[in-house]
Amino acid sequence: MPGFMTSVAFFAALASLPFGLIVGSFANVVIHRLPLGESIVFPPSRCPKCRGAIRPWQNLPVVSWILLRGRCATCRQPISARYPAVELLHGLGFALIVWKFGPLPFTLLLLLFFFALVVLAFIDWDHQILPDVITLPGILIGLAGSLLPGALIDWKESGLAAGFGYLAFLLVAEGYARLRGIEGLGQGDWKLAALMGAFLGAQRLMLTVFLASLSGMTYGLIQAWRQRREELRLPEPVEPMPPSGPDPAAPDAAPIAPENSPLAAAREPVSIGKFKLPFGTFLAACAIFVLFFGDPILLWYASLFRFE
C-alpha cells in the first residue's frame, strides 16, 4: 500500500508540473495588471511594450520565450526573463507540493496558497502594496481549509495563528510609528501575516517572520551600504563661479551647491531606518521556504531544549 501511494503521488506530481506552468502564465498577468486596476481576464495576453496581442502558440509557458529568444514576436522588443521564471517557479513549486504533501484535498489549497504568495511577493517588490483582494479571501480559505483532510494544523490553531499574526504585526507597527514617527509595517503586512498563520500555524509563522526579518535586514543593510558608497564617489558639490570672479567682500566663503542640485541631494547620509523595504516580498518568499523546509528546522530547534 505505501508503494502504491508513492506511485500515485509521483504521477500526480508529474501531472501538476505542466498545470503549474499554465498557472504561472496566469500569475504573470495578475502581477502586471492587478496593481494597475486592469482586468485580469480581458483583453487576452499582450506585449507589455507594443500592446500587441500574443497568439496562443506564442504564449506557451517557458517554451515560447525560449523559441522567440526572449523577444516579442510583433515588435521584437525584449521580454523580461522574469516571465518564464515565474512560470517555471509555479511548475516546480506545484510538483514539489503534490509530491511532499500527497494528492489530498488540502493540497489543492496549498497550491492556491503558493500561487498567492508568489503573486504577492512580486507585486510588493514592484509597487510596495499587498492587495486585499488576495490576502482577505486567502485568510478565509486557510481557515476553512483547516477542516479538510491533509491540513497542516487543526481549525483551532488556524484561527489562533491568524489572529496572532495580525495582532502581533499591528502592535509592532503601532509601536514603531509612535517611536519613530513613520510607518514601519503597512496593513497589507498584517493581513499577509494572518494569511500565513491560517495556513501554516503559529510555529511556522514565527519561523517565517524570523527568517524574513533576517533576510530583509541583510538586504536593507546591503542596499544602504551600496547607496552610501555611490554617495562617496560623487565629487564635492561646487557652485559655478560668476563671470566677474569671486566676491571680494567674502573671500573665505565656502562654495555651496544649490538646494535643487542633485549633488546637494546626494550628500544626505543614507539611513537604514528610512530605506523602503518591500517586507511582504521577504515574508512571502520565506513562507514558501518554510512550507517545504520548515518542519526539520523546527524539530532541530526543539531538540536543543530536550534534556535526557
Task: Describe the protein's architecture and organization.
The protein is mainly alpha-helical. It has 10 helices and no strands. The chain has helices at 2-33, 63-67, 82-101, 105-127, 132-145, 155-180, 187-200, 202-233, 262-266, 279-303. Helix 4 crosses helix 10 (279-303) and helix 7 (187-200) packs parallel to helix 10. Residues 259-272 have low confidence and may be disordered.
Structural class computed from helices and strand pairing:
mainly alpha
**What is Rg?**
25 Å
Any low-confidence stretches, pLDDT <50, length ≥5?
Answer: 259-272
Give the biggest sheet: none
Number of strands: 0
Structural domains: how many? 2
Characterize the overall form.
globular
The average pLDDT is 86
Defining traits:
308 residues, mainly alpha, 64% helix
Please provide a brief summary of the model:
Helix content is 64%, strand content 0%.
SSE topology sketch:
Elements (H helix, E strand, L loop, with lengths): L1 H32 L29 H5 L14 H20 L3 H23 L4 H14 L9 H26 L6 H14 L1 H32 L28 H5 L12 H25 L5
Helix pairs in contact: 1-3, 1-4, 3-4, 4-5, 4-10, 5-6, 5-7, 6-7, 7-8, 7-10, 8-10
